[in-house]
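Course exercise 7: structure representation. Students receive a sequence record and must write out the corresponding structure in token form. The form below is the worked example handed out in class, using Cytochrome c oxidase subunit 1 (89 residues). Read each field label carefully; the graders check that inputs and outputs are placed in the correct fields and that the protein name is recorded exactly as given.

STUDENT ID: A-19
EXERCISE PROTEIN: Cytochrome c oxidase subunit 1
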Amino acid sequence: GGRSIYGRSSLVIAVSTIGVMGCLVWAHHMFTVGLDLDTRAYLMAATVGIALPTGIKLYSWNASMLGNSMAFNLSSLWTFGLMFMFTLG
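STUDENT ANSWER:
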């Protein structure tokens, strides 16, 4: 078959969690509306909570790429660049 994905089940759970939590924090993009302090605190905490499954996702990507034999071609360099820039913001 194909290449193995490191931590497939944890990766699926992490991506699903990001999707669910992303639906719960959609209002944090409404920064010009003047939300209550309680609402802003909830949205801030929930947005920070997305960092854990995102870290799991990035770790799984790195482990999958580096755990398999791969050629460093242009697409793999772009993938590493994406992960690097995504990590730094």
